[in-house]
């Protein structure tokens, strides 16, 4: 079956009532024009609110591993268990809210520009500070089980967004398509009601959405500090050229 036919047969987003940002990474052209396999790699917002109908749909996907990037308090507040699904907590503690509160305590009213700066700082922090967690994700992608996997955080947009970008770039997907996948959050994610009621809508629109400037802040740091994604994968995450070829063999369709 040709890649375009395979893509037509599958859908990127799935109709979960309790997870608006759940989607498949399949179909994007990678190394040699080979498409990323469908129904192998999924990204999502948190999974604790899946309804009974959602859980039935989830079971049809064959997902056997769930990687949770939420911090300890986040995961404790919205825990989940799925029969037959191995749970892998790789906590990356959220920092934006803490930094925003620090600004407010100093007497400064948080502006949209401040929020953009905080988000960019957070993404730059992913590159070095969270490297052990992303390295662990790639070890799971390369382990012997080779079963479908979902990775997520709370909203599925920042920690998850950077992880998805790293996976797609490792598979040879072009940066413009990686950015396209990243920005899909803005069309899909439904912000929880009542969140940030004391914060201006202008600021909330920054904190609960994604912008090219956020992901680019991290990718520019990767390029600046490591000379590119391939070197970052090898030097910071332990995914050398042989491992990158193994990833391609596992997650790209045959020529």
In CATH, the homologous superfamily goes by the name: Protein tyrosine phosphatase superfamily
Cα end-to-end separation: 11 Å
How large is the share of residues in beta strands?
5-15%
Shape assignment = globular
Protein name: Tyrosine-protein phosphatase
Family: Belongs to the protein-tyrosine phosphatase family.
Organism: Verminephrobacter aporrectodeae subsp. tuberculatae
Domain Tyrosine specific protein phosphatases: 132-202
Write the layout of secondary structure elements.
Elements: H1 3-9, E1 23-24, E2 41-44, H2 52-60, E3 65-68, H3 72-77, E4 86-89, H4 96-105, H5 112-129, H6 131-142, E5 149-152, H7 159-170, H8 175-183, H9 185-188, H10 201-207, H11 212-226, H12 229-237, H13 241-251
Parallel strand pairs: 2-5, 3-4, 3-5
Antiparallel strand pairs: 1-2
